[in-house]
Structure formats: C-alpha cells, structure tokens
Specification:
Layout: E1 7-8, E2 19-22, E3 29-33, E4 42-44, H1 46-60
Antiparallel strand pairs: 1-2, 2-3, 3-4
Length: 62
C-alpha cells in the first residue's frame, strides 16, 4: 500500500471543512476529508485531478 503524504488544501476554511491532497505517489492523486484521516481515500489520475482543479478554480470566480 502506498504511503500518501497528505497536505491540507490552501482553500480550506477555518470551520473544519477541509480537504487534504497527496500528490507524492507517481500516477495517483489521493484526496481525503481532514476530519476523518482514517476514512475513505479517493484516488484519481493526475490528469483527472488537473481537470477538476481547473474546473473548481473557474467555479470559484462565478
């Protein structure tokens, strides 16, 4: 099992609604809820993550 090194999102707010992302494993990006570090991890390809990040960035400007 890969060892993901999670980092809290810079967009996380101070009210506990936080997402952590790990990009240290080649070919994978892992995402989890920071409130549940032992919970589910969503794994996606780097290209899928990039597409999501671009979309999310555009959504924040609407």
């Amino acid at each position: 099992m890969p060892f993901f090194q999670f980092v809290k999102s810079s967009y996380s707010s101070g009210n506990g609604e936080c997402v952590e992302v790990a990009r240290n494993i080649p070919g994978a990006v892992a995402v989890r809820d920071s409130k549940d570090a032992d919970g589910a991890i969503v794994r996606v390809s780097p290209s899928a993550w990039s597409s999501f990040a671009i979309f999310a960035g555009r959504s924040r400007r609407v």
